[in-house]
Model the fold of this input.
Amino acid sequence: MALVKNTSLIKKNSKTFYLASAFLPYNVKKKVLEVYAFCRLYDDIVDLKLDNNLDNLQSKIEHLDLNEKVIEQIKIGIGSDRNFKRYNNIHELIQYSYRVAGCVGLIMCELLSVKDAKHKYHAIDLGIAMQLTNICRDISEDLINGRVYIPKNMLPEDNISIKDETVLKCINELLILSEKYYESALCG
Done:
């Protein structure tokens, strides 16, 4: 049974992603939307702490025959939000970004039949860049949910305000870092 019977989930949660998918061939678009729905729903289930639905959800994408190790990395990344612990340094944040977004780039390569490893690295970098950008964009919402993705070595305090000048400086540093990943992605 497919995850996506209609496209309302994608339209609601990611207008840009939905519009971009319009340029894909139908058979690829269908698979891409199923992977998007899997990641979106997995994230929602983790956030709501509904363990009993996780195995059932993964079974819904088995027919896509995706790299299980990559799917497992995505699940580990998304699952790390359940018992969120702040990252100590940028390396840990990049590892998280690789898992939740860089691995999605690898899945996209699979779905688009990209074979060249060089292009896969650029897809990973695009995912990491986008995740870092999302972290900066969503910082207020994440604070409300008790999550501070800015690493401790950049911002040691736990109780922070979005209006704090130090926080704004850290956001700027993360955006500068994301630009480096975007530049790499453009080479692929």
Observations:
- Residues 26-48 form the longest helix (23 residues).
- The chain has a mean pLDDT of 89.
- The chain is about 65% helix and 0% strand.
- Residues 41 and 57 are 8 Å apart (CA to CA).
